[in-house]
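Postdoc handover notes: sequence design on the structure in folder B. Input C-alpha cells:
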C-alpha cells in the first residue's frame, strides 16, 4: 500500500478506502468512505453506524483527493 499524506489545512473532503478487517458497525473492508475533515492528523469519517468520529489514518488508503 502506497502511503500518501494529506495537507492538514485542506478544507475539501476526499475519499478513502478502509484497508483493515471488517468491524461491525464501524468499517467494512474495501468500502469507500468520505473524509469530512482532517483534525490534528485524524480523519473525521461517517462510519457504518451513521455517526461521524475521528479515526487515525493508518488503516485507510486515499483514493481520491
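Designed sequence:
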Amino acid at each position: 500500500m502506497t502511503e500518501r499524506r494529506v495537507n492538514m489545512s485542506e478544507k475539501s473532503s476526499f475519499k478513502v478506502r478502509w484497508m483493515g478487517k471488517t468491524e461491525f458497525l464501524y468499517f467494512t473492508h474495501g468500502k469507500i468512505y468520505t473524509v469530512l475533515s482532517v483534525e490534528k492528523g485524524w480523519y473525521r469519517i461517517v462510519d457504518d453506524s451513521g455517526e461521524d468520529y475521528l479515526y487515525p489514518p493508518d488503516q485507510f488508503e486515499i483514493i481520491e483527493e
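Context for whoever picks this up: The chain has a mean pLDDT of 87. Don't rerun without checking with the PI first.
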